[in-house]
């Protein structure tokens, strides 16, 4: 059954409350996640038990079938406890939404006996597929497969090549994680627990029903199909960009809350101020950074609401709207990184102690904000170019 808008608002609040109930489990796993470069088993169980990996899964398969704003709010809440968990949950849901473009037979195979199926996806066309009887032979190496250590399936992008090795098109291919080799390559300073390792496959057979063209995967033909639930009319790539930005915003909000909480008990060396709020300079700096984070959230909320409104009314987003959305998310991520620098200054040198959560917020947000979808320079160029009718600088919006 499709959720009404009132249903979604109520469910959204309940889901955010659910995050805060099991949030301590996520927070308790942060140190282990940093050390092992993967989510702890207890965290994965919490994700499964809370059904937060089903927000963008069809209700017909036991999913919650929510919307962009709901996942955005959930990821912001998750980031307060563990930014890596937030990133993995957003990626699973985004990948599950992409799976909706595959044929019914494929969706039944993935979700029919496993409503909590978790998917990964890698957009880089880092593999090749050669047509053979009944399907394709897939080979390739795909980096940055977020959450792959905990997922059941992966959507990989490949170039279809003929027997002479010439590229003849792009494909989106769905494969079981059991068919992949996972290479331990995720050695980063931030978002360490996402386990975004490299996956490799060599001449594996993929049946035809698990392969669709890149045009179908990226296409927005479903936008006006009134026979579909609103979620599956959603502009998927734009939606995924919004929730990626929401993870970063949640980190900024968590850092801000930490600085505010600790401020009364911290002085400002070498001044006479024994408590940070006594300092007009500190209070002004905090107000400025707080407003910067608020501005980031307003950008993301605008983008999410535009996408959801279009999906709810079966209206196709214009290219100008899609370009502005990419500008919104890039601007939002960039604003948070600027604000985090301000919060580090405001809190003081203690922010860089390994025991201080601020340094991890700083590392995680700055790492996530560099995701290609959140590049502010690309977003600015896309949005600015829309005013002059210039061709978009990225192929998929």
TrEMBL record:
GO CC annotation, single: cytoplasm
Recorded superkingdom: Bacteria
Example of a GO biological process term: fatty acid beta-oxidation using acyl-CoA dehydrogenase
UniProt KW keywords: Oxidoreductase
Pfam families in the cross-refs: Acyl-CoA_dh_2
Chain ranges of the Acyl-CoA dehydrogenase C-terminal domain: 243-376
Keyword Oxidoreductase: yes
Entry's Gene Ontology molecular function annotations: acyl-CoA dehydrogenase activity; flavin adenine dinucleotide binding; oxidoreductase activity, acting on paired donors, with incorporation or reduction of molecular oxygen, reduced flavin or flavoprotein as one donor, and incorporation of one atom of oxygen
Record bears the keyword Oxidoreductase: yes
Cited SUPFAM superfamilies: Acyl-CoA dehydrogenase C-terminal domain-like, Acyl-CoA dehydrogenase NM domain-like
InterPro entries documented for this protein: Acyl-CoA_dehydrogenase (IPR050741), Acyl-CoA_DH_C (IPR013107), Acyl-CoA_Oxase/DH_mid-dom_sf (IPR046373), AcylCo_DH-like_C (IPR036250), AcylCoA_DH/ox_N_sf (IPR037069), AcylCoA_DH/oxidase_NM_dom_sf (IPR009100)
The protein's name: Acyl-CoA dehydrogenase C-terminal domain-containing protein
Organism per entry: Streptomyces scabichelini
Taxon lineage: Bacteria, Bacillati, Actinomycetota, Actinomycetes, Kitasatosporales
């Amino acid at each position: 059954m499709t959720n009404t808008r009132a249903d979604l608002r109520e469910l959204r609040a309940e889901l955010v409350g659910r995050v805060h109930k099991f949030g301590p489990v996520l927070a308790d796993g942060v140190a282990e996640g940093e050390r092992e470069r993967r989510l702890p088993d207890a965290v994965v169980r919490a994700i499964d038990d809370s059904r937060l990996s089903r927000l963008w899964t069809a209700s017909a398969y036991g999913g919650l079938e929510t919307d962009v704003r709901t996942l955005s709010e959930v990821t912001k809440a998750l980031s307060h406890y563990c930014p890596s968990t937030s990133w993995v949950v957003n990626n699973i849901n985004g990948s599950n939404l992409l799976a909706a473009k595959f044929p019914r037979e494929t969706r039944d195979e993935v979700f029919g006996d496993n409503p909590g199926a978790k998917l990964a996806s890698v957009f880089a066309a880092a593999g090749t597929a050669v047509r053979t009887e009944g399907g394709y032979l897939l080979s390739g190496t795909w980096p940055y497969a977020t959450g792959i250590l905990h997922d059941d399936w992966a959507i990989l992008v490949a170039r279809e090549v003929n027997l002479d090795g010439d590229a003849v098109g792009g494909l989106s291919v769905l494969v079981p994680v059991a068919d992949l080799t996972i290479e331990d390559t995720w050695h980063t300073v931030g978002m360490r627990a996402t386990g975004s390792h490299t996956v490799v496959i060599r001449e594996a057979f993929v049946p035809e029903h698990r392969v669709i063209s890149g045009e179908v995967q990226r296409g927005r033909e479903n936008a006006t199909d009134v026979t579909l639930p609103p979620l599956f009319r959603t502009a998927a790539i734009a939606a995924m960009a919004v929730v990626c930005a929401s993870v970063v915003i949640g980190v900024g909000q968590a850092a801000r809350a930490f600085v505010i909480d600790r401020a009364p008990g911290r002085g400002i060396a070498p001044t006479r101020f024994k408590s940070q709020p006594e300092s007009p300079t500190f209070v002004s700096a905090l107000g400025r950074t707080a407003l910067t984070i608020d501005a980031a959230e307003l950008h993301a909320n605008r983008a999410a609401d535009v996408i959801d409104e279009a999906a709810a009314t079966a209206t196709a987003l214009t290219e100008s709207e899609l370009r502005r959305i990419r500008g919104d998310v890039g601007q939002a991520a960039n604003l948070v990184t600027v604000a985090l620098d301000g919060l580090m200054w405001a809190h003081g040198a203690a922010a860089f102690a390994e025991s201080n959560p601020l340094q991890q917020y700083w590392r995680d947000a700055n790492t996530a904000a560099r995701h290609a979808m959140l590049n502010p320079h690309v977003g600015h160029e896309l949005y600015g170019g829309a005013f002059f009718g210039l061709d978009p600088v990225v192929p998929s919006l």
